[in-house]
């Protein structure tokens, strides 16, 4: 039976996921707040700001009206920036309540909400009432949109407390180039997905400063260790962090020039100010807000995260990057498994 799916967010990842779902036989409606983007998508079937040199199927319809986009759908996939997820979810919740609509919720964004420090499944659970949602799942993994759209082999994970829903979502997305695994570790998958952006910022900064592969490997490995420490403090399965949502996502995001977070870090390493980096990017850099959230969480929970702390002080306190690296390298020696 063909499924009706609304994809909320027409950035690079949202539009590519919409394309996969359409290719796999679902009826897909794509929502964007930007009227000009909706017009371009419906008239030219392109999304030139986010995905270059690609024409989308004319069977995907774009909407500017949120109510139209989610009407009579079986699934709602949130792919909006982390810090606006709550506001969009609140609008969705009002519509679902009014229509007595019951849907499966998925999100594919990677971040932690500022101030509340909540994972996005928690934000969605707070905003969308249980009587209007069958399940909440997260789709995540090492997946640069620019590579997926060319049908490069990609593996991701769908995590949910509802394994029936996870299996259904797996079936919706999986094809010969996009393979999906299931998991019940929502905490681990979301924390790994969010915090790897911090490490990508650091990796880009190292490159911008002229450091090479040894430094990159050190950062990625020790960064993964502190992500795992924070995640397991919340009850995540430690094995999740050596899987697709941990080491896999770090590898792709901390080594690819397609990564906004890597590119932002690279510019910082080359001496650009944070304000200028944000202006140059023209798109959301999730790792910047996530760094502050992770730093505050680590303090609150008493989890040592020296790399995250160092990047936080560079971003928010104006700390000198080279001096910060020196301080990391000259800390007191300790066991690797601490």
Describe this structure in words.
By secondary structure, this protein is α/β, with parallel strands linked by helices. The chain folds into two domains: 4-184, Rossmann fold; 191-329, N-(1-d-carboxylethyl)-l-norvaline Dehydrogenase, domain 2, CATH 1.10.1040. The protein is built from 15 helices and eight strands. An eight-stranded mixed sheet has the order 3-2-1-4-5-6-7-8, with helices on both faces. β4, α4 and β5 form a beta-alpha-beta unit. α8 packs across α13. The mean pLDDT is 96.
Short synopsis of the structure:
This protein is of the alpha/beta class. The chain has helices at residues 12-23, 35-44, 66-69, 85-99, 120-127, 145-148, 163-173, 186-209, 213-233, 244-253, 260-269, 274-281, 286-301, 306-317, 321-329; strands at 4-8, 27-31, 61-63, 75-78, 103-107, 133-140, 154-160, 178-183.
Can you give keywords for this protein?
2 domains, Rossmann fold, 338 residues, N-(1-d-carboxylethyl)-l-norvaline Dehydrogenase, domain 2, alpha/beta, 51% helix, globular, eight-stranded mixed sheet
CATH class of the largest domain: Alpha Beta
Work out the helicity level.
40-55%
Q: Spans of 5+ residues with little confidence (pLDDT < 50)? A: none
SSE order, one letter for each helix or strand: EHEHEHEHEHEHEHEHHHHHHHH
User: What's the CATH topology name of the largest domain?
Assistant: Rossmann fold
CATH superfamily of the largest domain: NAD(P)-binding Rossmann-like Domain
- CATH-level-2 architecture of the largest domain: 3-Layer(aba) Sandwich
Main pleated sheet? 8 strands, mixed
Give the termini separation. Answer: 51 Å
- The count of DSSP E runs of length 2 or more, i.e. the number of strands, is 8
* Backbone CA Rg: 20 Å
Can you tell me the overall shape? globular
Q: Would you tell me the overall average pLDDT?
A: 96
Number of domains: 2
Helices and strands: which structural class? alpha/beta
How large is the share of residues in beta strands?
5-15%
Major sheet: arrangement of strands = 3-2-1-4-5-6-7-8
């Amino acid at each position: 039976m063909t499924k009706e799916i609304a994809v909320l967010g027409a950035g690079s990842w949202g539009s590519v996921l919409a394309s996969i779902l359409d290719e796999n036989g679902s009826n897909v409606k794509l929502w964007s707040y930007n009227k000009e983007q909706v017009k371009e998508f419906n008239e030219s079937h392109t999304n030139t700001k986010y995905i270059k040199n690609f024409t989308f199927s004319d069977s995907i319809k774009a909407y500017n009206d949120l109510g139209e986009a989610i009407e009579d759908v079986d699934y709602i996939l949130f792919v909006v920036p982390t810090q606006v997820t709550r506001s969009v979810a609140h609008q969705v919740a009002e519509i679902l309540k009014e229509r007595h609509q019951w849907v499966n919720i998925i999100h594919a964004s990677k971040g932690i909400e500022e101030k509340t420090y909540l994972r996005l499944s928690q934000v969605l659970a707070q905003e969308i009432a249980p009587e209007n949602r069958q399940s909440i799942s997260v789709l995540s993994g090492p997946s640069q949109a620019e590579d997926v759209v060319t049908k490069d082999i990609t593996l991701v994970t769908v995590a949910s407390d509802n394994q029936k829903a996870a299996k259904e979502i797996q079936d919706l997305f999986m094809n010969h180039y996009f393979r999906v695994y299931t998991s019940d570790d929502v905490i681990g998958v979301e924390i790994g997905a969010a915090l790897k952006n911090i490490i990508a910022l650091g990796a880009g900064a190292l490159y911008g400063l002229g450091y090479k592969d040894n430094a990159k490997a050190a950062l990625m490995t020790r960064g993964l260790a502190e992500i795992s420490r924070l995640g397991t403090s919340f009850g995540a399965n430690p094995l999740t962090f050596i899987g697709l949502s941990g080491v896999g996502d770090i590898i792709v995001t901390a080594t690819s020039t397609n990564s906004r977070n890597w590119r932002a870090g690279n510019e910082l390493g080359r001496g650009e100010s944070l304000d200028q980096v944000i202006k140059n990017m023209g798109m959301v850099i999730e790792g910047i807000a996530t760094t502050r959230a992770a730093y505050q969480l680590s303090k609150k929970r008493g989890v040592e995260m020296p790399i995250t702390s160092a990047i936080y002080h560079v971003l928010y306190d104006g700390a000198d990057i080279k001096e910060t690296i020196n301080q990391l390298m000259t800390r007191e020696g300790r066991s690797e498994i601490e």
